[in-house]
Amino acid sequence: MGDTAHGKDILKLIRKRGNIQDPIATPTPLPQAAAQPASQPEPVEQKATPPVSHAMVRMAFKEKVKFVLIRSIGNFLLLFSIYGVIATFGPALEYEIAYRVAQFRGVSYRVAEARELKPDQVAVGNTGPSFGSILSGKKEQVLIPNDTDFSILIPKIGASAKVFPNIDPDNEKDFLPVLQKGIAHAKGTVFPGFPGNTYLFAHSTDNWWNVGRYNAIFYLLKDLSPGDDVTVFFENRRYEYQVTETKIGDPSEVSYLKDSHGGQEQLVMQTCWPPGTTFKRFFVFAKLKSDLKN
What we know:
The chain is of the alpha/beta class. The chain has helices at residues 2-17, 54-105, 131-136, 172-179, 255-258, 289-293, and strands at 108-111, 140-143, 150-154, 159-167, 183-186, 197-201, 229-234, 237-249, 266-273, 280-288. It is 31% helix and 23% strand. Residues 120-126 have low confidence and may be disordered.
C-alpha cells in the first residue's frame, strides 16, 4: 500500500517537470485540417448581344431569296429533264410497252384477208391495235392495211403503216416530214413485184432530241428474227415476205440503195440504231415466200 502511494508521488513529480505523459490520461486528439469552404462555380461571363442592324436584316433576306431562287431553278430543270425524256422517247416506249404486254397476254396478230376488208376500209393512223385492245381485247387480233396502194404490216410486232413512195433518202427536207407520218420508200429502189431491192426506212432523226417527232413504227424491228412474216400491199396487190436476216451496219453502208435493181426480189427495212440515235443502222432483210419455196 505504501509502495503504491509512493509511485503516484513519483509520477506527479515527473509530470510537473514535463518529461513524460500520463499513460492513463486521455490521448490528445490529432490536429484536424482546417475545413475548406465549398467551391462555388465561377460566374459565366455573359456576352452582350450586338444589336441587329438593318444591313444585317437585308443580308439575311437576300440569302433567303437566293436559296429559294436556286431551289426553284433546280426543280424546274429537273421537271424539264423528265419532260424531255418522256417527249423524246415516249413514242418508242409506248411501242415497247405495248409489245411486251401483248407477249405477256399471249396476243397474236394476223393480216386481214381480202374477204375481211370492206370497200375503202383502211386502218386509222400508223399503228396496229390500240393499247386498250391489247390489255383487254381478244387474243387474236387483226391488222388492217392503212392504204392498199402502199402499206406494210408486220404481225409479230403488231405494226401497220402507210408507205410513202419515192422519197429521197439523201435529202432531209424530203424525208423528215414524211417520217413524221409513216414509212418512206427510198427513191431509186424498186417497188414490190419487180426484181431487186425494195428499200423502206423509218424512225430516222436529225438529232436525238427530235426522235419523238418521227414515227416510231420501225422501233420494234429489233425484235424480228428469221422466219417472221411481213406483208406489203402495193397497188392493191398483196405481197408476202419472210425475214431471212437482220444486221447492224454503218450509216455509210448504202449498197442496198445503190445496187437495188436486178436479181431476186428482196425487201430491205431500215431504222436507226440504237433507238433515238443516228450512230448505226439496223437492217432487216426479207424475201418473197414464193421464192423461198423454190
